[in-house]
Each structure stands twice: as C-alpha cells, then as structure tokens.
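note to self: the first set is below, dont mix up w the second
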Amino acid sequence: MKKIVMILRQSDILKESENLSWI
C-alpha cells in the first residue's frame, strides 16, 4: 500500500513540475 501511495505522490510531483514548466 505504501508503494502505491509513493507512486501516486511521485506522479503528482511530476504533474506539478510540468505545470511549473508551462508557466
């Protein structure tokens, strides 16, 4: 379960970084 949460968090971080790069 923890691994799934980690992956979800990593995906969220990637999305945030992509949004920042778009700015």
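second set (the one i keep forgetting abt)
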Amino acid sequence: MDKNKTRLIAQVGVAVALATVLQYVKIMQLPQGGSVSLQSVPIIVMALLYGPKVGMLVGGIFGLVEVLLDSYVIHPIQFLLDYPVPFMVLGLAGLWANKKVLSIGFAYCLRYLAHILSGVVFFGEYAPAGTNVWLYSIMYNGSYLIPEAVLTAIVSIWLWRQLQKRGFSELAQ
C-alpha cells in the first residue's frame, strides 16, 4: 500500500473518531432525540478536502459507529434513514469545490430530508393531536438541524481555510 493511501486511511479513521467524540459534546439536546453538536465537522472537512467519495465514506462509517454507541432503532428502513444515510449524504458537501456554502447547504438539506422521512413514517405518533405529521417532522427536525447546519458550515469552512494556509491541500492530493 502506498504512503498516500495509508495517510488517507489514517485520516478517515481520525475523522470518524473526532465525529464520534463531538457527538457527545452537545450544544442543545431535544427531549425526543436530536441535538445540536459539531459532530458533522470532520465529515464535511474531509469532503471539502478529498471530495464526495471520501466524505461519504467517512459519513457512512460514522453513521454505523453511531448506531453501535447511541441509537434508537425500530425498523430497518428507519435505521437507514436515521443513521448511515444522513451522514453519508453529508459527504456530498465536497461536490462543488468552489461553492462550499452551497455544497454544505445541499448536503444538509439531504440529511434533513432523510430525518423528515423517518419522522413522518416512524415517529408520527409523537406529533401533538391534530398536528400534521409532515409539519411536525419538518419543525422538530429543523429545530436542531438548521442551527447545526449553520454552525457546522461556519466551523468547517474556517477549519478548511486554516488547513489550506498550512499546506494541507498538498497532503490531500
């Protein structure tokens, strides 16, 4: 195995480990699940540095690790919609290298959509009586994902710029 592949494998492992630790540093926690944290920053930064394939790999591995450590699974489809899929799609933040805010926003919209679908199909019973389940899922998931997306975008772009200043882009090639 060449030196660059070994370096990339190590960086993927470090990114997954960082995301795992950051998921426990909660800025805000909602009563029925969902929280604001910076867990997605390592996934986004790897996507910005290496592109969507590596970003999706990091996100997918993190989603599986999260299931092992802290999950609530009631159905195989809900498992997919709440764990590997939302974090894999965050890797798509590496799609448009020159439009980082747009890329991160797009990736978070896809994550939001996965959680909305899971909420409608599997957690609609928690909606207050008379409340549309779609509206409830949009509001509930948006209450933590929108602030997290904004914080993650700010921190990820800042961190990416710091890495660029220190010559990290040459290592990522």
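remember for set 2: The mean pLDDT is 92.
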